[in-house]
Write a structure and sequence with these properties.
A 6-stranded mixed β-sheet has the order 16-20-21-19-18-17. It is built from 19 helices and 24 strands. The chain has about 625 residues and is an alpha+beta fold. The protein starts with 8 loop residues before the first helix and ends in a 9-residue tail after the last helix. Helix 1 packs antiparallel against helix 4, helix 2 runs antiparallel to helix 3 and helix 12 runs parallel beside helix 13. A hairpin with a 6-residue loop joins strand 1 and strand 2. It folds into 5 domains: about 130 residues, HPT domain (Four Helix Bundle (Hemerythrin (Met), subunit A)); about 90 residues, 2-Layer Sandwich (Alpha-Beta Plaits); about 50 residues; about 170 residues, Heat Shock Protein 90; about 130 residues, CheA-289, Domain 4 (OB fold (Dihydrolipoamide Acetyltransferase, E2P), Beta Barrel), CATH 2.40.50.
Length: about 625
């Protein structure tokens, strides 16, 4: 019976990427300790694993390249050390393997690996593998100095219904049909065939072959390929349907520990038992047993919530594997000596947060090396738990941020007036580097200044309800800290009332709450402020931000202290209701276009509560020219 290998495809892609990340890390470590026999053996095993998995899946080019790297490394294992030139060679091979995995992930044919393999025995090996083709629905500009060339790509994959009729009197028609079937399998995925491969192996008369093929090739190309084969009388090739060939069209899978699955089974059994206990207590009017059952149900759901989150949790190590390789390349480009340290790789976050954090983390490390470190230094990437948050920090011991240069740039760009810039403290200037395109560098390097990419870092952090803080000391270095929630599905919210409506803010965006006396509010020009510690915090009306009518203030004023644009703000609300854990749902079109609203949840009484984003509300108010201050 034929085995449907597509079931194992996602597992192969996921495990191959893990092996390639490990290979990149091992190669960087071997460059510093080329005689590390254990590291060399581990590298050989990673290449062997990729080769074996690819061969079992039928991915010929990937298996061939894995086998080549395995053979290449075996000679150095015998010698006990690997030279720098060989490390460059294997790194280029890892890049090419990553390109092949990208091909398979996008369901494209594997690229040709023969030029790379031949290069190791004849001419000098290429300095870098061929660049991977663009993903579906994308175009890539290539050829620096040769003009920008746009490469067209297919926007979807076609499922073709193919009927092949053989000529009368064809010799060994079953064998001919079997060759055609296997050739078509190399051009895509055969969904079904009549007769199938098992029947064709039995021989006999086969006047025609019918099949359905999922392929990236055009129907005419498939038809021409078949007509060029022997004993083919005619070919019919009809598009049955078209399905987008994007990554999202394929179901995503995750690997789950068996112990966790056992916990789910146990919890399900306890929930079923508790359900029957509650039903019996309700039917017999036993109120105390009902209360006890509800308390037990609460504990079980809390336990279930905890274990469900564990399925989505992944360690930081899943996105830091590329960093040593990237730092190595930056050292070669800049001529600097940089020691990269990674701490807390075992700390886990929600996989959706980690996936979005991968590029911003590379931005921060790249900028630390290029803009922070001068000749030699250290970059530390660390992660740690802070209650319900994870603190991710990128710290360097380089030159630090130049506050005066930031002032001049902000004034020159019209972001601040000279007076505002002069009055601002250094800690308030640093968040300006997160504005799109903001950079104090006069020249553009291959790696960029700190401003390039920092807007992405801030946007991703705030997208998940996190906060970003920047601290720097001239000549001592810079620290960028991201505080992120553990999960994005079920989070703790602060409920507030404003204009008769119940609203919510993620607790991760709330610095503190307080009740203000009228006498505590001060006026600074046209803006009301409140002293908190050693700083004056702008006092803003949530009613005005939501364009609701003002309400006379009587007694104390409830305030939520949050952060927007890198500075503290105090939001005046009508009433502080309390905290609650809630399942957050993202909004669908057109509600997702509402500025300042990041999601919604449903309370136990059926009420829908919108989750507000102070930063988005401020940006919307600025764009519309509105004011949100509190009237004196």
């Amino acid at each position: 019976m034929a085995i449907d290998m597509s079931k194992y495809r996602d597992m192969f892609l996921s495990e191959s990427r893990e092996h390639l990340q490990t290979m990149g890390r091992l190669l960087v470590e071997l460059e510093k300790s080329p005689d590390d026999r254990e590291g060399l053996d581990a590298l050989f095993r990673e290449a062997h694993s990729i080769k074996g998995m690819a061969a079992s899946m039928g991915y010929r080019a990937t298996a061939e390249l894995g086998h080549h790297l395995e053979d290449f490394l075996s000679g150095f294992r015998a010698g006990g050390a690997i030279p720098p030139t060989a490390i460059d060679r294997v790194l280029a091979g890892v890049d090419l393997l990553e390109g092949l995995i990208d091909d398979l992930s996008a369901e494209r044919p594997e690229r040709d690996v023969r030029p790379f393999i031949v290069g190791s025995t004849g001419a000098a090996p290429p300095s870098a593998p061929p660049a991977p083709p663009p993903l579906a629905d994308e175009a890539e500009a290539v050829g620096p100095g040769n003009g920008a060339v746009t490469i067209p790509v297919a926007s979807g994959e076609e499922i073709l219904k193919i009927v092949i009729e053989l000529v009368s009197g064809a010799v060994a028609p079953a064998a001919r049909a079997l060759l055609m079937l296997r050739e078509l399998a190399a051009q895509g995925e055969v969904l079904d065939a009549d007769p199938n491969e098992r029947k064709l192996l039995q021989g006999g008369a086969v006047p025609r072959l019918e099949l359905r093929l999922k392929s990236w090739r055009a129907p005419q190309e498939i038809k021409d390929l078949l007509l060029a084969m022997s004993d083919v009388a005619r070919v019919s090739c009809v598009v049955e349907r078209v399905r987008p060939a994007t990554r999202q069209s394929r179901e995503r899978t995750v690997r789950v520990r068996t112990g966790l699955l056992d916990q789910f089974i146990n919890l399900t059994g306890e929930l079923v038992t508790n359900r029957y206990m509650l039903q019996a207590a309700y039917n017999e009017g036993r109120d105390q047993d009902m209360r006890d059952g509800l308390e037990r149900l609460t504990r079980l759901i809390t336990d279930l919530h905890h274990h469900v989150l564990q399925v989505r949790m992944m360690p930081l190590a899943s996105i830091t594997g590329r960093l040593p390789r990237m730092v190595r390349e930056l050292e070669q480009q800049t001529g600097k000596e940089v020691a990269l340290r990674i701490a807390g790789e075992e700390v886990e976050l929600d996989r959706s947060i980690l996936e979005a954090l991968a590029d911003p983390l590379m931005h921060m490390v790249r900028n630390a090396v290029d803009h922070g470190i001068e000749e030699r230094g250290e970059v530390l990437v660390s992660a740690s738990r802070e209650k319900d948050l994870v603190l991710v920090e990128v710290r360097d011991n380089g030159r630090g941020l130049d506050a005066e240069a930031i002032r001049r740039k902000a004034v020159g760009a019209g972001l601040l007036s000279p007076g505002q810039a002069l009055r601002m403290a250094e800690r308030d200037l640093f968040p300006l580097i997160c504005l799109p395109g903001f950079s104090t560098r006069a020249e553009v390097s291959e790696t960029s200044g700190r401003g390039v990419g920092m807007d992405v870092v801030k946007a991703v952090t705030e997208q998940f309800g996190g906060t970003l803080q920047i601290a720097s000391e001239r000549g001592r270095g810079t620290s960028i800290q991201l505080r992120l929630p553990l999960s994005v599905a079920i989070i703790r919210l602060l409920l507030v009332e404003c204009g008769g409506e119940l609203l919510a803010l993620p607790i991760t965006r709330v610095l503190r709450t307080l009740e203000l006396e009228r006498a505590e509010i001060r006026s600074s020009g046209r803006q009301m402020v409140v002293p908190l510690g050693n700083e004056l915090v702008p006092l803003l009306s949530l009613r005005r931000m939501l364009r609701q009518p003002a309400k006379p203030v009587a007694g104390t004023i409830p305030v939520v202290v949050s952060e927007a644009r890198g500075r503290k703000i105090a939001l005046v609300v009508d009433r502080l209701v309390g905290q609650r854990e809630a399942f957050v749902k993202s909004l669908a079109f057109p509600l997702d276009r509402i500025a300042g609203v990041s999601g919604a949840t449903i309370l136990g009484d059926g009420r829908i509560v919108f989750i507000i984003d102070p930063q988005g509300l401020l940006d919307e108010g600025t764009a519309s020219g509105g004011r949100s201050g509190v009237s004196p």
